[in-house]
């Protein structure tokens, strides 16, 4: 028995790619058994197991809204916007993550190539980041931010001192 065997039109779902949605159509005897419409207007077909007809996903990305626990999903903000050259290098090294419309960070290799290209063409560089290591934690992110802020304030202090010495 597949996850969406008893799906009905109007059921509320959550997709790891596009976020909140609802089932707008159910197909009997078809490879794709449901059609889901998301808040952003996209309609995506899904198999009875919750695998989308979009991207390179081989695992379930669609769940009933009441069944999913997103407490371990990574919704963290971007701390640093990457340069286009860095994005290309990270992509080639398979170390690039992209923020999906749902807000979750995923490996760029799993996203639809057209989505990646569109984000690059529109210069949406804030939607990319270097893949976090499994050992990386929120504490590490806070340390990076503090380090960045302290470097910035040191630089500002040097600039102020230079201005004072020039005025004297």
In the residues, how many domains can be counted?
Answer: 2
Order of helices and strands: EEEEEHEEHEH
* Overall geometry: elongated
- Rg measurement, Å: 21 Å
**β-sheet strand percentage:** 15-25%
Tell me about this structure.
The protein is α+β, with helices and mostly antiparallel strands. It folds into two domains: 12-67; 84-152, no CATH class. It has three helices and eight strands; from the N terminus they run E-E-E-E-E-H-E-E-H-E-H. It has a five-stranded antiparallel sheet, with no helix packed on it. The longest helix is centred in the C-terminal third of the chain and has 30 residues, at 138-167. The radius of gyration is 21 Å and the shape is elongated. 20% of the residues are buried.
């Amino acid at each position: 028995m597949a996850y969406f065997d008893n799906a009905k039109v109007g059921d509320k779902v959550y997709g790891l790619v596009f976020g909140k949605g609802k089932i707008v159509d159910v197909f009997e005897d078809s490879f794709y058994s449901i059609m889901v419409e998301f808040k952003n207007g996209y309609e995506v077909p899904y198999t009875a197991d919750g695998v989308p007809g979009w991207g390179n996903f081989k695992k379930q990305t669609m769940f009933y809204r009441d069944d999913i626990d997103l407490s371990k999903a990574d919704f963290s903000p971007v701390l640093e916007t990457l340069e286009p050259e860095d994005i290309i290098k990270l992509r080639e090294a398979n170390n690039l993550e992209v923020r999906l419309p749902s807000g979750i960070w995923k490996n760029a290799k799993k996203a639809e190539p057209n989505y990646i290209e569109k984000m690059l063409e529109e210069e949406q560089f804030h939607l990319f980041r270097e893949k976090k290591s499994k050992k990386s934690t929120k504490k590490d992110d806070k340390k990076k931010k503090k380090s960045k802020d302290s470097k910035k304030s040191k630089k500002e202090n040097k600039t102020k001192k230079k201005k004072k010495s020039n005025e004297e």
